[in-house]
Amino acid sequence: MDVWFVISNTIVLACIYGTLAIGVSITWSSLGFLNLAYGFIFAFSGYGAWLFAQHVSTFGPAVLACGILSGALGGVFVCALAFIPIHDKPNFTIRGLIATLAINLIGTQSLLWWFGPRSKNLPEIFGTWKLSFSGVTLTADRVGNVITSVLMLLLVLRWMRSSRRGLEIRAMMMNPHAASIVGIGVRRTSFYVMAITGALAGLAAVLLSQTYYISPFGGLTPMIKAVSIALCGGLGSVQGAVIAAVVLGLNEALTTVSIGGRYVLITQFLMIILILLVRPRGIAGILDRAREA
Amino acid sequence: MNIIQQDLSQAAHAPLQRREMLKLSGLSAGYGPMRVIHDLDLIVSSGERIGIVGLNGHGKSTLFYAIAGLTGWQRGSIKLNGLEIGRTRSQGPGRYTHQIVRAGLALIPQGDEIFHGLTVEEHLDSGAFTPRSWRERQERKERILQIFPPLKKLMAVPVGRLSGGERRMVSIGRGLMGEASLFLVDEPSLGLAPKIGKNVIDALMALDLGSSAMVIAEQNVSLLEGRVDRILGMHVGKLKGEASAALMLHDHGRA
Amino acid sequence: MTELSSIQRTWRNPLFVWDGSQEAEKLPTPTFVSHQEIWEATRASRAKLLPVGRLRYYHKWAGHGQNLWRRSRYFPTRRRVLRIRGEYNKKSLRREKTIIDKRPIWWVMGLVALALVPLLTPASLENTLLTAGVTFGIYAAINLCWMLVIGTASIFSLATYAIVGTAAFVTAYSSTMFGLPWWLLPPLGALVGVIFGGIIALPATRLDGFYYALLTLGLNELCRVYFVTSREFGSATGGLYGAATYIPQDWSSSGQLQLAYYACFAVMLLALLLYRFVNGRRLGRILRMAPEKREAFAEATGVNFRQARVRVFLISSVGLGFIGGFYSANYGGVAFSIFSFDTVLLGLAMLVIGGIGRSEGAVLGTLIVVFFDKVLITLGPARLIIIGLIMLFVVLYLRNGLFGIKQQFRSWRDKKKSERRSTRAEKGGEMLPEEATEARNVDDLYRRRYDKMQREFLKTLVKPEVIEEHRRAPQGQHSEALERLLIYFRNQPQPDKYAITALQSINGFRIVALSGHRGVAPRVVEDKIYRSPAEAYHGVFLRRVQDLLES
């Protein structure tokens, strides 16, 4: 068993799942909205990138950009359909959750209808070069995956920290009522948030398609992993999600090496349940500096 | 001379050439089947400080929320600086609030409506979301720090860690950051030690209003008495002021 | 004309001749205002008549009150079959009965219709309809148990199908391996269900609703991956088949279908019974006291809602396991599709379309979704899209599914009513039409309307001349306008009526307001101290005038 191979594999997956998990986290904490149409957005942006690669160009960065853009488009679409009509109605959280599930059902079935059940694959985005030192070989897509996802995450986090829109989003994450008093429009900000988280999903979709394929239901597993990582990190906390991604990635690597790949999900959920039993608010419950109101 | 004639003569000599900053006519508002504000009329002129006094649950906060478009439903006209911001609205509380805030309203809400994780500085920035004030936010922050000097040392501290009085200062400072033409201050002294509450009120009184206006809601009349231009009472969703009766008599007298 | 009005503008004191020392002979007085005008204006009001009040139509059954005491009850309980109210008709004074809660009647009608379906289906449709009926029975039973978890216990669990599937797989496995008879499968399933439910109930005690929903979504996926990849459970064949089944193989295919239909119908009835026994009795009551976000309050009143929730969860897990065992006994095995995400979504669609928290919602939602999914099978993948669209529509526009429409409409109407009320608000004491329908004493309505008219009229009399006249002489003979005002003021009820108190110590007078209650002292209205009674009288008069104008 090549330990280095497994570990690098897990780091790659953790990066991608972390990207998705941060998307889930941001949506939940700023809009109070659990976006379970994430699987659909994921598949949608994969198909967007595939269509672009088929009909326009197979130039790697362009395909990547197209995937990100169609992810953002999917996010905006979900926002307009499921968030805008009910965000100020009673029982919003539960209805929003169900609405996104319905969109997921409709969306994936439509993709199945349109593109058929056969999975598609994207061209190699990062080329086919290899990097090897001291016995470890790193293929292009692995290095590319890690670098792109980390870069994108840093970009998004930096933007959230310093720009005016980012301040808006963060203010809404903390206190939506006060945010509207300050003059932040919930509806407009929600479009920004959903576009950004959709773009993160689109990025993850294109990156994952280097390893797996694009299929109508291919978004389900990444979504569930993302959601469980976000859950474990404490919904709404970016640092928590990053830590959880690393922890669960490590767990995945160790399980695969010691017991076997079949038991990955079992150990993962045992771990999540353990963490949540100790800290019901996830890892972020330990990190939180601010005084609870 | 009797009191009604006194009032009559005062009303006749009142300077009416000042601009109307806020004009409510026939405003009703409530939540669901409950009506909290009953057909209320009020005019606030520019440069004026008005106190609204009333007990808990008589609709002071709801009045402010109705002006900001945050109640469940509302009817009647609200004119802010000549601009109609109150429409008949039966759903979507807060849907238009950001537009109203952009039109020049600063609502400083009751209690701690703050963002726990943001630092004091970011918090003050968040008060200046209108494009012009965002550009001038450094100068505006300086001005706030002159009003509330204790905040200077706390600029990098998350607001969630501050004490009640400091939070209130941050909250008021945030309200003062924008270029508002009307300030609505909801119970600035609530939940604070009497001395700190008095300091907060002093800071509000010391503020140079210029052409804007300020309405302060309080339960404690003694904090406002003699320091504001008018004090109106609020009772079960209606305003009861000395001036209103006189104005009505004035109308009847002419009729 | 001018002569007349000039005459009316002065008032001549008739008592002046007798004692003219203090009083003026003539005083200016306002022009005469006829109260007739106000009366006519009110009567001639062309105000639009709006429908007010609420219309709730109940059929009135004839019957003597005596009959009400002979009530039919569900056997071991004291619970009545129908809630019937007996009353006298207000007009005819005849005795009549009203059925308040008609739901039992609807239930019986619906269940009888479902029971009659196999007998009435045409032969060409029998296969499709009865297969759909079998699915409907099983899924309705599952959804009823799920509704207990989501609705009654308010645990947003998405692991229902994981429990059912695990129980079905374990029972099918043990049946194929150890040759268990079919009647052992449901009890074995129940055992599996309670173990599995017990394991996943553990985090439910600590986690909030949505954390738990996400966790269970993952658990469902975990089960799917585990069973799909494990060789014992038939990863090669797409499912596990060959379990014992209760359907005799030597029957005709239509006879087999009918037997399966009635068996599934019976399972659904059992699930309904379970729902009724959990939701309608002590556990359900306890949990209804602790709805979401009010848990702290429930806890403070001594309700151990956590324990109650876990108990409901375990009970429904037993039910779900039982259904899982029945599932494999019914189909002779189970496919992996029971764990698929779409199954969870369809199940959720069933709950949501009917309305969460009601058994009738679960059954009707299942009926609708199964109809689209199994009967209109020719539509292909479009039928799932249609179901998704229905689900989306219901969740976006209905607050609580189809069975919540009535309540949603009522609250919408109440809101609109209140808004309309606010546009029609008049300053004055008259009751608004909506209030009037709710008033106990109708006399009160007329009194207040009359009072309002009277005040309208009196307001027109308040003029500076009148006030000046009162200031000159608070007592004695007055002009007509002033006299009318004073009579109205004096007729006001005792509570909060102004009075004058004489201060012995400093020889002054002060205005007080009477409390209206014997033994409760009047309260002081203002600090001002008047030197003479006349001044105090005038002070009282001014206050009353002010109150009149403000009203």
Topology:
The complex is a heterotrimer of chains A (293), B (255) and C (551).
Chain A: H1 3-31, H2 38-55, H3 60-83, H4 92-115, E1 130-133, E2 136-139, H5 140-162, H6 164-174, H7 176-182, H8 186-208, H9 220-233, H10 238-258, H11 264-278, H12 284-287
Antiparallel strand pairs in A: 1-2
Helix pairs in contact in A: 1-5, 1-6, 1-8, 1-9, 1-10, 2-3, 2-4, 2-8, 2-9, 3-4, 3-8, 5-6, 5-8, 6-7, 6-8, 9-10, 9-11, 10-11
Chain B: H1 3-13, E1 20-31, E2 34-45, E3 49-53, H2 60-67, E4 73-80, E5 83-84, H3 97-102, E6 105-108, H4 120-126, H5 131-135, H6 137-147, H7 164-177, E7 182-186, H8 194-206, E8 213-218, H9 221-224, E9 230-235, E10 238-240, H10 242-254
Parallel strand pairs in B: 3-8, 3-9, 6-7, 7-8
Antiparallel strand pairs in B: 1-2, 1-4, 4-5, 9-10
Helix pairs in contact in B: 1-10, 4-7
Chain C: H1 2-8, E1 10-12, E2 26-28, H2 35-43, E3 60-62, E4 84-88, E5 95-99, H3 103-120, H4 126-152, H5 160-178, H6 185-204, H7 209-229, E6 239-241, H8 253-279, H9 282-289, H10 295-300, H11 305-331, E7 333-335, H12 341-354, H13 359-375, H14 382-397, H15 405-423, H16 433-438, H17 442-461, H18 464-472, H19 480-490, E8 498-503, E9 508-513, E10 523-524, H20 533-550
Helix pairs in contact in C: 2-17, 4-8, 4-11, 4-13, 5-6, 5-7, 5-11, 6-11, 8-11, 12-13, 12-14
Q: What are the defining features of this structure?
A:
heterotrimer; A: 293 residues; mainly alpha; two-stranded antiparallel ribbon; 12 helices; 2 strands; C: 551 residues; three-stranded antiparallel sheet; elongated
